[in-house]
Amino acid sequence: MSTAVTSAGAVSLRDVAEELELGVDHLARRGYLAAKRSLDVLFAAALLASLCWLFVLVAVCVKLESGGPVFFRQVRIGRDGRAFTMWKFRTMRRERRRRDVGPPPGTHERRHLHKTRGDPRVTCVGRVLRRACLDELPQLWNVLVGEMSLVGPRPELPEIVALYEPWQHARHLVTPGITGWWQVNRHPHRLMHEATELDLHYVRNQSLRLDLWILIRTFGAIVRGTGAF
After folding, report:
1. What CA–CA distance (Å, rounded) separates 22 from 173?
2. Per-residue pLDDT of the chain (229 residues; tens, 9 = 90+)
3. Domain containing 147: what range?
4. Which of 198, 171, 200 is nearest to 187 (CA)?
5. Which of 20, 47, 74, 121 could disulfide-link to 96, CB 3.0 to 4.6 Å?
């Protein structure tokens, strides 16, 4: 099993799994993992193909409103502590660093966790994309190439992972997801890295049934616009 790099050095994920009694053999169930990966590829490919028109429409809207790049990319930490580039549709103004309008109060503490309501840097199109969670659609490519899954712990920024306690690296025992147990159970004011126990619940209990339940609850949250700004 691989290691995760932190500010204190390398942390063995096997040691973390054994310390937390997660059971490496259980995590590596070949039948579940093979089925999960097959479904990821099937659904990601089908959605990318069927939603080509939506990608084009969103790209045109982003370009017409604020110019600049259509996509926003950011390095995140995935399974086994490996870094990868995660993709999103850009929802903030291209010139945000040159504008006098700074982030709203509290954004510095929250920026790594989830979107902030009323952020003046977000474009009009960006607000619509965030409300419908359409800004996350490009991550279907991350799923297709195996860097992410439809369901799993959300991947964190390297600078946040560098501050992890050793036990928190248990999140990296599984492939990160577009949605996960934290997304459908989170407290609105609790930061993602402060709720690692929700991710560990998923790591301990992952199954196709749980994945399906998370996807159903995610769809409900999208319809209600819960937690998306």
Report:
1. 10
2. 555 554 434 567 666 666 665 655 555 577 889 999 999 999 999 999 999 999 999 999 999 998 889 999 999 999 999 999 999 999 998 765 444 444 445 444 444 445 566 678 899 999 999 988 999 999 999 999 999 999 999 999 999 999 998 888 889 999 999 999 988 886 655 565 567 888 989 998 889 999 999 999 998 888 876 655 4
3. 3-224
4. 198
5. 121
